Amino acid sequence: MWRLSYRVFRAVSAVTRWTLRRLTAAGLLVLGVAVAAAAIGIDTTLSLAYQVFGLLAALLLLAALGLAFTRARVAVERALPRLATAGTSFTYRVRVTNLTGASLDGLALIEEFADPIPGFAAFRAGLRFPAYRGWKRLIESDRTVSVPLHAVPPLAPHATADVVVQAHALRRGVAHSTGVTVARCEPLGLARVLARMAQPANLTVLPRRYAVPALDLPGSRRYQQGGVTLATSVGESEEFIGLRDYRPGDPLQRMHWKSFARAGHPVVKEYQDEFFVRHALVLDTFAGPHAGRAFEEAVSIAASFACTIDTHECLLDLMFIGTEAYCYTVGRGQLPLGGLLEILACVQPCRERGFRALHDAVLARRSELSGCILILLGWDEARHALVDALRGSGVPLRAMLVAEQEPPARPEWLAVVAPGSVEQGLARL
After folding, report:
1. 281: exposed, middle or buried (C-beta count within 10 Å: 0-12, 13-18, 19+)?
2. What is the crossing angle of helices 292-308 and 337-345, to 10°?
3. Which of 282, 281, 287, 257 is nearest to 269 (CA)?
4. Percentage, residues of the chain above pLDDT 70
5. Label partner for 425 (CA 20 to 30 A): which of 53, 248, 274, 312?
6. What is the pLDDT of residues 101-154, one digit of tens each?
7. Structural domains for the chain
């Protein structure tokens, strides 16, 4: 039943998408009335509705014939923006040039973003019962950008017009566009002929950000092993401060051979160690099958903290688990903040691994951390063990749980943020 429903729903979606692209609003009205008239006038002896059906069917047939004589010979130049933010509107310009010696009217632009049809596995996992309403909900939940059809003003021969396209970023992610389709109505204004212009482009929709109160992240400078590049402009860099006699255990790479030859005994170069503030932003990606909303809000909270913390004075490590353990560092000389937001735009829930992977990855860096912000999607023994290990190591910690309900016996230091009221929950931190 599931596989049959999936095939039927896919076929219905394909037919619906084709119809909405090919028919204008007037064409859809004519088609709908024609179908209703056909149903009512099926018995020609009881109703004259069949005459209405015949008239409307003739109009649709004439419109289909008119498509054979309708062309849209235009050139299109569009610059799709590279970045947008979820939950906000954005605009971009499309330049349309008439390539013919005749005037053109009835033109419209369709941005060719991929239709987010879920695979069978996602369809089976996302629905409890195979209903078309649930199918539509799955499609809408995966839609990244909404770009409605935009009309183009009439074009004189060889004229050019700039069209400002209004679009809305629905959710974070990467939207792939294959190009722009120019639609032109046939003389009756019921149907459209389509001319596709291949102009591939990607639009990255960054996570939604919330206002985060100023947090006093405690913690002192820690020793960092990694060289000058990690300490540039954020702490005490590894600088040469002088020469001294060799001591057992000094690496040979620090031997100063000229002084060794002049003094007759080993002399090494002495450097100052790197000490600076480093915080970790840990994102729990182990979402349950029905925690999609909480996971999206957790990603938005992580993006909000990343934009709030002043990385000119410290380094910030974003840590999460995907196909492997990832750690991205933001700060002077490291990854820029925009790059971190683009990474968060593509983070997906982890289904293949256990929470222990995040536990081990965070504790492996605890000696370098001055503080930690922990964003959790649940509260169980595994997460409790990570918090206890960090607190036991002396790492200052701010932990928050993104969940619909507070867990039983919640510790006082664990902040709970409910999806849908994130701004209010963050204001209480």
Report:
1. buried
2. 180
3. 257
4. 90
5. 312
6. 889 998 999 999 888 888 888 888 778 888 888 888 888 888 899 999 999 999
7. 2-206 (2.60.40.10), 276-427 (3.40.50.410)
